[in-house]
Amino acid sequence: MATRTIDSATTLVPRRSLGETYFGEWLMTTDHKKIGLMYIVTGFFFFLVGGMEALLIRTQLAFPNGKVLDPQTYNEIFTMHGVTMIFLFVMPILTGFGNYVVPLMIGARDMAFPRLNAFGYWTVLFGGLFLQSSFLFGAPPDGGWFQYAPLSEMAAGCGVHAVTCTPGANADFWVLGTLLLGISSIAGSVNFVVTILKLRAPGMSINRMPLFSWMQLVTSFLLLFALPSLTAASGLLLLDRHLGTHFYQYFYGGDPLLWQHLFWSFGHPEVYILILPAFGMVSEILPVFSRKPIFGYTFIAWSGVAIGFLSFTVWAHHMFAVGLPPVAQAFFATSTTLIAIPTAVKIFNWVATVYGGKLNLKTPMLFALGFVAMFLIGGLNGAALAVVPFDYQVTDTYFVVAHIHYVLFGGTVFAIFGGIFYWFPKFTGKLLDERLGQIQFWLMLIGVNLTFFPMHLLGLFGMPRRVYTYPADLGWNDLNLMASAGAFIIGVAIMVFLYNLVYSLKVGRKSGDDPWDAFTLEWDTASPPPKYNFLELPVVRSRRPFFDKKYPEIADWKTVTH
Amino acid sequence: MNEAQHLEEKSESVAVEQRSESQEQAEQQEPGGKSGDLSAPNAAAPEAPVRKKRRKKAPPRIEDITPRPSFWPILLAVALCITVIGLDIHPIVFVLGLLLVITAIIGWGVERR
């Protein structure tokens, strides 16, 4: 009789479930760190997509009478550049940092609702792919990132009073894509609010919370209150386009300005949604690399709250040119000027933090300092735009393009790179190469100023935004060429970063758990952190808990009461 | 350091702390009652102190303090995407998406956490 020997070691291995395979682990993860990394990688992928679109725009405009893109394609590219950068790069990547860092910073083991967190990420990913897939269907959104109605309406009413519309699916992609992204943002915001309010470590009062967590909290409230008006506006547009209603069509008794009011009452808080977490990042980086506690913690935290409140009162400064009554103009000009006060408070506090410090000019610090300088320029020309007569002159010109890019590129993107260099050791256990980082910083600083500073002058010389080309005799040629050259320098800087990323991941120096001698709790665990973050929850006695632990003899709680 | 090593070291240190705590308590314990407990009866009773063996508190298991993986979030996101696409493409796609959304929400709700 034949016998068979069974090798138990090979036959008794249990089948692995989907969640135990490498890909399954990522697909099914509810770990805030993995979700955070997925947000960051996805956001950065869309940054590259949006960057390509920016380079196409600048190639088209580098010389007069450009022929690289036809007018329709140009409309699609600049629209998708804005949509991609705002909704698919900055928002997801900031959420990613929040996801990874906030629970660690406040001494929590995860977000309050881990599955909701995963849902938020996957909705962003699919929403982003849905929006980008519009190129495959030949119908990308083409009405600007704010998709003004009635330009974005369908056929009904088209041609009446010379109104041109968007009969294809272009605007539908925008409406449905932003709807999906809005759902994701709501899920993420609820999660941040509950996590920050309910899962802080013992002893971490709201007054001892790290400033990045503070700004994430304010941003989450802004999203919760601002998104409904975008959803309402989009819903009405969808009804107009498909069910024959006429909310935005003047000819049928609708009001085109309704769209602008609804959109901008989301859109201006949105600008602060994009910048407040960046404020938080810089408020974490500057003190660590100045070897000082942050100056005026309370003012920085509460000025963030003030900015949040005021951001809901300024929306119509985007609409000065539509013919608002003088009282409304005065109100919105005043509120817009008022918002400069808490913003300036932050800048003074950052400068005071750096002043007299033992500065360590590593790459994260360079980006944080670059952020302060660039954001200051963006803030000042923003205050200029609050002056109604000046706004009349430059509205919808390249001056506005310069302003928004100084704020969002010179500001937010610099802070994001500062954050990447600062927290990369936490994510991976390795340091990004310092020399390549410094090269990238200087290239970006030169590139940003070369690209966006000339746009102020172009705006003052009357170049409207969104034109696909221009004649040679308007005096705009040299400035446009400079801007395009600057854009390509930024492109080179991003290539340097990508090389640095691959190089450092492969052969980068190991960072240890606390490479920057930092102050906050995320560094009080291994780098990268174990799955459970902290086996025992830390107890907090001051605003710099990890500093206290490392230097008990000069601990903050011994000398400072807060 | 991997997670297992990290946990092992932590559990050792927790056990050491607990041992020293229980020793201290035993040393401070007076016959017949806890230290400073004036209401304890027979404070001067000559019974020998009873040393209770305290069980070592095991360190928390990773699966107890970390969330479980779940495929419902990704499924719900896919379902939502199909529903939204259905709004623009065809009512059948929309209804299919809606059914998937309902399935995903129910699955999410009844999943063991």
Written overview of the protein:
Chain A has 18 helices and no strands. Chain A is an all-alpha fold and 562 residues long. The mean pLDDT of chain A is 93. Chain B is mostly helical and 113 residues long. The model of chain B is unreliable at 13-45 (pLDDT under 50). Helices cover 59% and strands 0% of the residues of chain B. Chain B has helices at 3-28, 62-65, 72-88, 91-110. Among the domains of chain B are: 1-29; 68-113. Classes of the chains: A mainly alpha (562), B mainly alpha (113). Chain A binds chain B through residues 18-19, 24-25, 27-31, 109-110, 114-119, 121-123, 125-127, 130, 169, 172, 176, 179-180, 183, 238, 526, 530-532, 535-536, and chain B through 1, 3, 6-7, 10, 14, 59-60, 62, 65-74, 76-78, 80-81, 84-85, 87-88, 108.
Instruction: Please count the beta strands of chain B (DSSP E, at least 2 residues each).
Output: 0
Specify Rg of chain B, calculated over alpha carbons. 29 Å
Query: Low-confidence stretches of chain A at least 5 residues in length (pLDDT < 50)?
Result: none
Largest sheet of chain B: none
What portion of residues of chain B is helical? 55-70%
- How many strand segments of chain A? 0
Q: Output the number of helix runs of chain B.
A: 4
3D shape of chain A:
globular
- Uncertain parts of chain B: 13-45
Instruction: Name the assembly state.
Output: heterodimer
Based on CA atoms alone, the radius of gyration of chain A comes out at 25 Å
